[in-house]
Amino acid sequence: MLVAFYRDILQVEVSEHETRWAALMVDDRCINIQAQDWYVPPVWPEDASAQTKMIHFEMDTRDMEAAVALVVQAGGMAAPHQPPDRDPKQLRVMLDPAGHPFCICA
Question: Which residues sit opposite 24 in a β-bridge?
Answer without folding.
Answer: 14, 31
